[in-house]
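question for whoever is on the cluster today: can someone run the full assembly for these? two chains, 571 residues total. i dont have access anymore since they changed the login thing
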Amino acid sequence: MSMENKSPLVESLMAEMEELRRQLYEANETIEAIRTGQVDALVVQNESGHQLYTLRTADQTYRVFIETMTEGAVTLNQQGIILYANSQFALMISKPLTEIIGAPIKAFIEPATYAVYESLFHSCRVSGECRGEIELSTGGKPRPVQLSFTARDLEEGVSHSLIVTDLSGQKAVQKELALNNRELEQMNEKLEASNHDLQQFASIASHDLQEPLRKIQLFANLLRDRDSDGTGEKPAKPQLDKIINAAARMRALIIDVLNYSKLSAKDGHFVLTDLNKLIREISEDFELITQEKEARFSIGQLPLLEANPGQLRQVFQNLISNSLKFSRPGIPPLIQITASNIREKKFDSDELAYGDFCLLRIKDNGIGFDEKYTENIFALFERLHSKDAYEGTGIGLAITKKIVEKHGGLITARSKVNEGAEFQLILPLRQTP
Amino acid sequence: MLPKKILLAEDDADDRSFFFDFLTGRKDIARITAVENGEEVFSWLENIQDAAALPDIIVLDQNMPKKNGFQTLQGLKSNSRYRSIPVFMYSTYADENLAKKSLACGARLVLAKPFSPAGYHEMIDQIFDTLQVEADGV
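^ ran it for u. tokens below:
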């Protein structure tokens, strides 16, 4: 059959087919455009005017969003068949999308968690929303995930939207956290045990170590005061005095160590304390030595602050007694105590009337010390002077520092040899419970 | 005040003899008896038939084997026959908690063990002063 012999019918059919083929191509193009998000809607002109066609899933923003989010997204039909899955979900189960779409989701769930999945699937149809944890099969180690189900009634029937959140990272963190917690608990136990040991030691120190010392003192006292040959001569008196003094000093050390160790125990009992009253009481306690040394006090307006009054009293007792002790020979001690409120817990902080901290300065005109020893003076048992020149156990400032720190404060000292010393304390006005 | 009969519970032999050596001869002390621990306090007291022969003062050391000072104090205060006898505790180191506990339990004073013969006399003076104040109060 030649072309010339073609009937007009065939020709018109061919033309029509060509036209349909073109329309089909256009329709496919359009669908593809919608699928890939290039087009959101179609406007078709027909006899009744313009008509707008959109697809429910035609929103490009959401589709891009779903494809790029780090969670898996899956749509299921009533039978649990996967209608849609994003590439993240495919990554989670290490399967190509072509194997996923159209397959029942249960094919990718660990059998051990079927029951959880089933109950989620059903309760979601009742409540509309629900979530739970299951495990996905990956071909290797099961992947723990959270499923967030939403059931939606569409014209085609109920469909389930699932957001699949990978929990492997979270589970690993949880595991690490649990491990850390266990370690922390063990460390706490050790700490408690060592605190207990310290308390035990304190108790032993207080009783058992002091007992032999007391005996030394008592027998030495007896010997010293015994008039051995009835002549009134007491030949060994100077040596026995030394034994008695050494024993007394040892006792003072033990008591100070005990007091220092007791500061470690929990006794954070803070009450509103008037520093003016506290300092007045302390200076009265020092009345004798004050008169003896002709010492003068100059005390400014001091704040009220939340503190442990007994401990704070010890702080100022130590500092004032140091100032009185380390006075220059022939020069009456002058002790100045001033306070100002400051903005921050820093020694160079700005003053601020309603600041949260107060800076206290305790300044004297005594022998002072070389500032290179500032760290040393706060250390346990550190002394800058021989105990023959100045008595003391070398624990006073260590206790002072520890108390200040227990109050959330800071302490430092400024001084020059023979030009007096100034102790600076920063204390919070209020204690956080 | 009439001279007093003192019962001392003290496990340390030196401390027992200090008590005797330094305090015997005081006009206000009629007799000192010493036992070695809390259990002996009760066995000794139980052997006394005549209530008038019971001690006027009991001094307890805290650290003793078998029954320590505080346990002995509790036992004495829960016994109707001995409850009214004034009890004084003494210890090398007068621990604050123990002192509070003992005073709450009915001890009259909690004292630190003396360091010298003079210290022993001061301690006994303090005990008698306390009793005197109480007697005057009544």
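summary bc i know u wont read the tokens: Chain A has four domains: 3-54, 69-166, 182-262, 271-428. Chain A is about 45% helix and 20% strand.
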